DNA sequence: ATAATAGTGTCTTTCAGACAGTATGAT
DNA sequence: ATCATACTGTCTGAAAGACACTATTAT
């Protein structure tokens, strides 16, 4: 978002805000409040990344930021009110950002990249129902490595992470594809690569 | 350590301290300062775990703790001044602790367990020089799974993580074992299990 | 020599990748 | 029919586990 006030006024920065100790139970509640207030998003995947602190990351003095990443689907992305001064940038190349926010992006990118093939994380970038091809492509883009289609289907079956959406088929391709949804309503980790 | 003052006076708690914004560059510097002041330890492996926060984890009001775990060898352990009121407890069963420190231990345990087989972390629990048997046993204890000795040696070789300590042999066993040291002076991650 | 642990070589099993082949819809 | 993509089955190669075997020291 474009910063309205000093320091770094006019520059791009990640959305954030101060903890309101009177209303926020913890820092995750703060993150979710900011997501709702600034972006109108609620009930989305949101996970703590790390705490960035130092004497000089903010010219006003010593500071610490507890950072979270949130994942939304393309659908949620399109529903975000475009009247906000929100600007979307690629995580891998966010351009110049205020404070140490570029470093934070790098950290988040590494986290997502390393977590992608060990969890259901990529599925959260998709709508509730998706095809196996879409899921595999998302795994590939997030992890940065290409996956064998046949082996991917085998592992998805073995990990027992998806449920068929009865009778639902994608119509986007030559042959309609079965639609699936995550079995678990939360992010689950695997003990091996997908 | 045993807490000297309220809240939770007399109870066991993890060593910690407030950030001194005038002398600590960041929270890791705070962690290292506390390690030095309270335990006399310096230059040890120390990594951020997560930030624990909530309105009720401290009866005095809303609070946040940026937590770190530190790893020392048995040798360092024995050099810690036993005059401090430090008490060592198993991470898996720390007993009753002040604040949410038991929860923090659980979190650290999960972190170490999941990181063990994907990094050189276990080697940091050992002295600078160690045998392959010692290293494998440490991997086994930290990860909670037994490892095949032959495969372990193969992977250690492939990962190119160790260097022989020329002419140095352990004398603890029937046949003396070659001593090794880590090639890298820092924690390195693997992209597969050891 | 025997015991005990270190270290090696090889066989077997398991798992991931390749890829051919079939299935199902649109044109 | 043919094209395009979905999905399946099977072969192959690589990696992990099992385990027998040799090596080196102490007793």
Short description:
Chains A, B: This is NrtR DNA-binding winged helix domain-containing protein. By secondary structure, chain A is an alpha+beta fold.
CATH architecture assignment of the largest domain in chain A: Alpha-Beta Complex
Give the spatial strand order of the biggest sheet of chain A.
1-2
Number of DSSP strand runs of chain A: 4
Q: What is the number of independent domains of chain A?
A: 2
Order of helices and strands of chain A: HEEHHHHEE
The CATH class of the largest domain in chain A, by name, is Alpha Beta
Structural class call of chain A reads alpha+beta
What would you report as the Rg of chain A, rounded to the nearest angstrom? 19 Å
- What is the chains' assembly state? homodimer
Q: Name the helicity range of chain A.
A: 25-40%
Query: What's the end-to-end separation of chain A, in Å?
Result: 35 Å
Average pLDDT confidence of chain A is: 94
Could you tell me the strand content of chain A as a percent range? 15-25%
Characterize the largest beta sheet of chain A: strand count, sense, and whether it forms a barrel.
2 strands, antiparallel
What's the CATH H-level homologous superfamily of the largest domain in chain A?
Nucleoside Triphosphate Pyrophosphohydrolase
Describe the global form of chain A.
Answer: elongated
Largest interface: A-B, 16 and 16 residues
Low-confidence parts of chain A lasting 5 or more residues at pLDDT below 50? none
Number of helix segments of chain A? 5
């Amino acid at each position: 978002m474009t910063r309205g006030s000093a320091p770094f006024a006019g520059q791009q920065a990640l959305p954030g805000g101060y903890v309101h100790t009177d209303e926020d139970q913890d820092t995750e509640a703060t993150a979710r409040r900011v997501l709702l207030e600034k972006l109108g998003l609620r009930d989305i995947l949101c996970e703590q990344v790390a705490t960035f602190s130092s004497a000089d990351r903010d010219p006003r003095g010593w500071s610490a930021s507890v950072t979270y990443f949130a994942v939304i689907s393309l659908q949620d992305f399109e529903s975000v009110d475009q009247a906000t001064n929100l600007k979307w940038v690629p995580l891998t190349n966010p351009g110049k950002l205020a404070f140490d926010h570029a470093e934070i992006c790098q950290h988040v990118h590494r986290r997502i990249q390393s977590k992608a093939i060990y969890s259901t994380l990529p599925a959260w970038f998709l709508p509730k129902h998706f095809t196996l091809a879409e899921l595999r492509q998302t795994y590939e883009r997030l992890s940065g490595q290409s996956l064998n289609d046949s082996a991917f289907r085998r592992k998805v079956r073995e990990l027992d992470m998806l449920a068929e959406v009865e009778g639902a088929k994608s119509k986007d391709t030559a042959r309609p594809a079965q639609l699936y949804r995550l079995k678990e309503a939360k992010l689950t980790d695997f003990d091996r690569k997908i």
